[in-house]
Automatic annotation (TrEMBL):
Keywords: DNA-binding, Transcription, Transcription regulation. Belongs to the LysR transcriptional regulatory family. InterPro entries: LysR_HTH_N, LysR_subst-bd, WH-like_DNA-bd_sf, WH_DNA-bd_sf. GO terms for cellular component: protein-DNA complex. This is DNA-binding transcriptional regulator, LysR family. Signal peptide: none annotated. Residues 1-58 form the HTH lysR-type domain. One of its GO terms (molecular function) is DNA-binding transcription factor activity. The lineage of its organism: Bacteria, Bacillati, Actinomycetota, Actinomycetes, Pseudonocardiales. Pfam families: HTH_1, LysR_substrate.
């Protein structure tokens, strides 16, 4: 297989839509469809199940998606690190969700900067509803949050574990409770909805949100309630409250990196992160 074919397949497998994948790749849809069909023919397996309404991955397609991401990530990372070395500018790219892990991120950057031989760390901040670009080579390491962020195929070390809270206006009927349950929050018509991986939203009457800035503005206006990690209660705007959700799953913050990495700087960063967590 060529990296071009893998790039085409990964785009289709992630979008689960040939039109969106073609737009993402900057090519027309017919040659993209032909390239995927040729790849399937050469491998002798069906990678995608196509109907008039939807595209889905087969078991073989799921395997190639995972392997393809790792391969493309390794290639992209090798190119980036090679150029950085040639320019005598070694560095690490650390990805994180904007508005998340602020305290952990600040502590990590400060502690690592004091390490002998520390290299510059570039921050890649991503939208809350997107997947952190770790396997495509744009980042060397990332702060992720299980169970919301997938960590399959990555090496991880646990940093912190916390509960979840429902964030709402102080005037909300549930705001005076010492705790609520998942069923209480799920039944709220104003529960905010985040997009799925394919860009569609779950059914419901709640506002459709794409980032934390938009979300908190809606909460302040009384138009939304959101389920967020417990750390969110720190620094809430006046008029908002965070009520613990007793039976919600724990949120685990991890530092994650591709298993093929052999960077000494990355190893030092991970060691520092696990040292103060």
């Amino acid at each position: 297989m060529e990296t071009r074919e893998l790039r085409y397949f990964v785009a289709v497998a992630e979008e689960l839509n040939f039109g969106r994948a073609a737009d993402r790749l900057g090519i027309a849809q017919p040659p993209l469809s032909r390239a995927i069909a040729q790849l399937e023919h050469r491998l002798g397996v069906e990678l995608l199940t196509r109907t008039s309404r939807r595209v889905s991955l087969t078991g073989a397609g799921e395997v190639l998606l995972e392997e393809g991401r790792a391969i493309l990530g390794a290639v992209a990372a090798a190119e980036r690190r090679t150029r950085a070395t040639a320019a005598d500018r070694p560095s690490l790219v650390l990805a994180a969700k904007a508005g998340s892990s602020g305290e952990v991120l600040a502590k990590l950057l400060d502690a690592y900067a004091n390490e002998p031989g520390a290299v510059p760390v570039e921050l890649l901040l991503c939208e809350s509803n997107t997947h952190v670009p770790l396997l495509d080579g744009r980042a060397d390491v990332a702060l992720l949050h299980e169970p919301y962020d997938p960590t399959t195929g990555l090496d991880v070390e646990v940093l912190t574990t916390e509960g979840q809270v429902a964030v709402m206006q102080a005037a909300h009927p549930l705001a005076g409770r010492s705790q609520v349950r998942v069923a209480d929050v799920s039944a709220l018509p104003e529960l905010a909805r985040w997009p799925r991986r394919d860009g569609t939203y779950p059914d419901g009457a709640g506002a459709e949100v794409r980032n934390l800035t938009q979300l908190f503005q809606l909460i302040e206006l009384g138009r939304a309630v959101a389920v967020l990690p417990e750390v969110t209660r720190n620094g809430l705007a006046e008029g908002l409250v965070a009520v613990p959700i007793a039976d919600a799953p724990q949120v685990t913050t991890v530092i994650a990196w591709p298993p093929h990495s052999r960077s000494r700087a990355l190893a030092d960063l991970v060691r520092v992160a696990t040292g103060f967590s």
